[in-house]
Design goal:
The protein is mostly beta strands. Among the domains are: about 230 residues, no CATH class; about 425 residues, YVTN repeat-like/Quinoprotein amine dehydrogenase (Methylamine Dehydrogenase, Chain H). About 10% of the residues lie in helices and about 35% in strands. It has 11 helices and 61 strands. A 4-stranded mixed beta sheet has the order 1-2-61-60. A 4-stranded antiparallel beta sheet has the order 3-4-5-6, with no helix packed on it. Strand 31 and strand 32 form a beta hairpin. The longest helix has 12 residues. The radius of gyration is 30 Å and the shape is globular. The chain starts with a strand and ends in a 13-residue tail after the last helix. InterPro entries: Quinoprotein_ADH-like_sf, UTP4, WD40/YVTN_repeat-like_dom_sf, WD40_rpt. Keywords: WD repeat.
């Protein structure tokens, strides 16, 4: 039997409305395995006298995280909070959140990922590069090296390796040369300096595959000037060039090789052990600043080598199977390895005084250092394919004066280890060394108070279905659609969910109200039916160039739009014998190409796909946001040919997201600089970003059909990430990767408003309608949820932010149980609004409920936000409530929800009795009532997980799509298991 969620009917707890819940676990979404992880490098320090005076000592911020998957997609993650907030406090429970996806060609995979700096000489040593300062390269087992356009999410260019399949690649510490290990046994060096990509050298050939590669520590430049004349730009750059002398590679012939970069010859060969005559595969190598080489092989052995003598220093049989990856800690004193046996092992560099020497007696003590195997942790259920650490390791000798000239902005923050593998889950773990003072270190993940790898808790990030959910729903058609890789599946929800009895409502209400208490997650009081009635209607495998980037179905279930990075496909779904038969509308792409060619800024003749798609609620219009050019194309679907075929017609192309500077009527909109948006006003004052944006200017509707463009810097590159429609079909809103949100009027097909730029990315947005009463007018609200847990409420008709919801935009004003959630907001569910929700024919009302004006006046303020492991009911116009995690209890241990005054009992106090979310009263009874009331807002339910999609099918009927991790793991091949003696 479906479980009800409680919906508040006003700003004070009143008779609760139960939501009948469809728990859909039949959606067979299977995430793709993680095969590569990369963090951006930091620029090497500059030591010349003229550059040291102009170093830009930027503040602390977390770098971009790239995750490559086996289906060819690359996910880009950014830190959840703004740069200003990161400098103030690095503690962020949400950590890295998905910001965009690069959709891979079909078929393809990602085996290697490398970030390089686009212009490394423009960055200081302590400056973390932004996304626009980076280049991203990938290889997928073929001979093509791919460079990605990080703005549009498409392939920028490709280069053939000229040596067969690319098995590995690595960039030098200066980000000027990229080394490729190829199938033919050669290492090829590519020039990537100054945004170039070209072959420059190939090293000598060996008779084996090059499986792994790493650069030796660079040699610092001399600080003395080469001549007494005034230095020019070219001479300055030469003085700051670091020199690469050698690289090390691991092969398929049981050997490591050290190569001279200048001559291309093999300097030395290091042989590893063999098992039963079989060749040992050197899957991974790394190099420390002192030249120590670390290798992991197919025997599960981790070895340390001296690069000068090329002899073995240590050998640790730490793993039961192949070691596939390793990562070096930012201090160079820790090495992490993992592989097929699912264990992540830590090796630590320790210094010991031996030989019994006594310093006090004047005898000279001998200092001996060595590597030890410290600990191992099992954080994955299957093979681990990739490891990466932030901040990254720079192989610069610690005794050089170069290191002492710059302050490390991450000295007080624990490093973070990211790992991934076949179980498709990205795992983050603090990995500070035990030698650090734990009282001085901050755990940025907020998983525990400690930050050492041995003792700290790790956290598993939810596997995403896409930047926008790959699951969409048709309310009137009662259809559920899933898009995955190159296929689309459609199900029909057969019947409405059964409403529980009054007793069942009370029992589950008590469980849901006890946030963090004894009954919040037991779920044993009610026997639930796990899945709702459904039938599979349609499965389509599409011929696409890349994986599917966007999918949408109309509300009546008659239209289906699917897009990859280069083409949008529109299907008309015809009813035949109780099933759906798709019919392709082939004229859509010609309409899109013609629309983009007529753009005012720059005509676009090449076809392109969509980043987001959406149908108007009346299913008469399709809105396409183009993937590369960030245009919004509005298409009318009501026209038909004499043969009764659909005839898509262009209504308008909105180019507003592609602008940095434009004139709207008599108002000039100029681009906001990155530093101004992130750090406060132009004077550098650290004013609160949210407060500044709430009071910013809002763009009004322009007079003409198109804006007037400024001649300079008129176009910018961005990606439209989210789209939402109002329930009446009058408005739709979009937001882009530059944190800009715009509202458009579909009735007049005009631009309506531009919201001030938000300091954090928008994770979801939705419209909520407020009904008209005798004391208030009808209004449409736009609700925006940000990655930093803040919420913005904007009144569309009034063109202003709702003053009664201003406190929701301040992170410090929100409940701690809300801001401490580890999973960020994935979506917003708004109950469909009806003019008279209290008619006698509605089966979704509580049996004791009667019509009330208070419910009607605030119905539009109640929303459900959801993440991967939680659902949260929020009353936007109510106080945020108590900020803790659990309710107060009586001394006898009885929870206040077990008293006669339960949350389902109507409360007769007026909203004026609330003071900062607390009800006035002096007695103990009033204290308990106060506790009930303050917990009624931001109530979190964690019984449903992991959630892929949450939305309403109808009034009072909630649909939750879950994909338990156990179901995903059952579809994977068996994990490695090595029995122990005696077990």
């Amino acid at each position: 039997m479906p479980a009800p969620l409680q919906a508040a009917s006003s700003s004070r707890p009143t008779a609760a409305q139960p939501f009948a819940v469809h728990r859909c676990r039949f959606v067979d979404f299977t995430p793709s395995a993680i095969t590569a992880i990369a963090f951006p490098p930091l620029a090497l320090p500059k030591v010349s006298a003229h550059t040291s005076k102009n170093i830009n000592r930027s503040g602390r911020r977390f770098g971009t995280l790239a995750v490559g998957r086996a289906n060819g997609n690359i996910e880009i993650y950014e830190w959840a909070t703004s740069v200003h907030e990161q400098e103030r406090s690095p503690r962020t429970p949400q950590a890295w959140v998905l910001s965009r996806i690069l959709y891979g060609p079909v078929p393809s995979k990602v085996d290697s990922l490398v970030f390089t700096l686009k212009y490394p000489y423009t960055l200081a040593y302590n400056q973390v590069p932004a996304l626009e300062d980076l280049r991203l390269f990938s290889a997928g087992g073929g001979s093509e090296l791919v460079e990605w356009d990080l703005t549009s999410g498409t392939v920028l260019r490709t280069l053939n390796s000229q040596g067969g399949a690319i098995w590995c690649m690595s960039a030098n510490p200066a980000s000027t040369v990229l080394a490729l290990g190829c199938e033919d046994g050669r290492i090829r060096l590519l020039d990537v300096a100054s945004n170039e990509l070209a072959h420059v050298k190939r090293l000598d050939r060996v008779k084996c595959r090059i499986l792994s590669i790493a650069w030796g520590p660079p040699i610092p430049p001399t600080s003395a000037p080469k001549n007494t004349n005034n230095s020019e730009d070219s001479e300055d750059e030469d003085e700051d060039d670091w020199e690469d002398l050698w690289v090390v590679s691991g092969g398929s012939d049981s050997a490591l090789r050290k190569w001279d970069v200048k001559t291309g010859r093999v300097l030395d060969r290091m042989s590893t052990d063999k098992a039963k005559g079989d060749r040992t595969l050197i899957w991974t190598v790394g190099v420390l600043a002192d030249g120590t080489i670390v290798s992991g092989d197919s025997l599960g052995v981790v070895k340390f080598w001296d690069s000068k003598t090329c002899t073995q220093l240590h050998s640790f049989p730490a793993h039961g199977a192949d070691v596939l990856c390793l990562a070096i800690g930012p201090d160079g004193n820790s090495v992490f390895t993992s592989g097929v046996d699912q264990k992540v092992s830590l090796f630590t560099y320790v210094r010991n005084i031996t030989d019994g020497a006594e310093v006090n007696n004047g005898k000279r003590a001998r200092l001996r250092s060595r590597w030890i195997h410290s600990t191992s942790k099992r954080m994955h259920s299957h093979d681990v394919r990739a490891l990466a650490i932030w901040p990254p390791y720079l192989p610069v000798t610690p005794n050089s004066r170069i290191n002492n000239m710059w302050r490390n902005p991450f000295s007080c923050v624990a490093p973070v280890l990211a790992s991934g593998g076949l179980d498709a889950s990205l795992v983050l773990a603090p990995c500070a060394s035990a030698s650090f003072d734990q009282n001085m270190l901050i755990n940025p993940l907020v998983t525990s108070t400690v930050s050492t790898f041995e003792d700290a808790y790790h956290r598993r990030l939810a596997y995403p279905t896409g930047l926008n959910s790959a699951i969409t729903v048709s309310r009137r058609g009662r259809l559920l659609v899933l898009a995955r890789d190159t296929g689309v599946s459609v199900w029909r929800i057969l019947s409405k969910a059964k409403i529980p009895s009054q007793l069942e409502e009370d029992l589950i209400a008590a469980q849901a109200a006890d946030v963090g208490g004894e009954g919040s997650n037991n779920g044993n009081a009610i026997t639930e039916k796990d899945e709702c009635g459904y039938e599979r209607l349609l499965d389509m495998d599409l011929d696409t160039t890349t994986n599917i980037s966007a999918c949408a179905i109309s509300d009546d279930g008659n239209w289906l739009a699917v897009s990859d990075a280069y083409e949008v496909k529109l299907f008309e779904l015809l009813d035949q014998n109780g099933t759906k038969q798709p019919r392709r509308v082939k004229t859509l792409m010609s309409v899109l190409v013609e629309a983009l060619a007529s753009c005012k800024i720059s005509g676009l003749k090449e076809p392109e796909g969509a980043s987001t798609l959406g149908f108007s609620p009346d299913s008469s219009r399709l809105v396409v946001s183009t993937a590369r050019s960030a245009r919004l194309v509005v298409i009318d679907l009501t026209n038909r040919t004499p043969e009764d075929r659909p005839l898509p017609t262009l209504l308008r192309v909105f180019e507003h997201h592609a602008l940095t500077s434009a004139v709207f009527g008599d108002r000039v909109v100029k681009k906001i600089t990155k530093g101004e948006r992130d750090h406060g006003d132009s004077e550098g004052n650290e004013s609160d970003s949210n407060e500044r944006d709430m009071d910013g200017d809002i763009e009004m509707n322009e007079d003409g059909p198109h804006p007037t463009f400024t001649p300079d810097d008129a176009e910018t590159r961005t990606t439209i990430t989210h789209m939402a429609f109002s329930s009446d079909g009058q408005w739709f809103a979009t937001t882009d990767s530059h944190c800009r949100t715009r509202i458009f009027n579909l009735d007049s097909v005009q631009h309506h408003a531009l919201l001030p730029t938000s300091p954090s990315l928008v994770s979801s947005l939705a419209f909520s309608s407020q009904s008209q009463t005798s004391s208030s007018r009808s209004s449409t609200l736009l609700v925006l949820a940000h990655t930093d847990s803040t919420i913005i409420v904007y009144d569309v008709e009034a063109r202003q932010f709702s003053p009664w919801a201003h406190h929701l935009s301040q992170r410090d004003n929100l409940p701690k149980r809300w801001t401490s959630l580890h999973d960020s907001v994935l979506g917003i569910a708004v109950e469909p609004f009806t003019s008279n929700p209290f008619n006698s024919g509605s089966p979704f009302l509580g049996r004791s409920e009667t019509p009330s004006s208070s419910f009607e006046s605030s119905q539009g303020h109640n929303i459900i936000m959801w993440g991967s492991t939680w659902l949260c009911k929020i009353a936007l116009n109510a106080p945020v409530g108590w900020g803790g995690f659990a309710k107060k209890r009586r001394r006898g241990g009885q929870n206040s929800s077990q008293k006669s005054k339960s949350v389902s009992t109507p409360n007769t106090q007026t909203p004026s009795a609330l003071v900062n979310g607390n009800a006035a009263g002096d007695s103990h009874e009033n204290d308990d009532v106060e506790n009930e009331e303050t917990l009624s807002n931001f109530k979190i339910v964690t019984r449903y997980r992991p959630n892929l999609f949450v939305d309403f099918l109808d009034g009072g009927e909630l649909l939750i799509v879950e994909r338990p991790l156990g179901d995903v793991l059952r579809e994977l091949p068996p994990a490695f298991f090595k029995p122990r003696y005696g077990t």
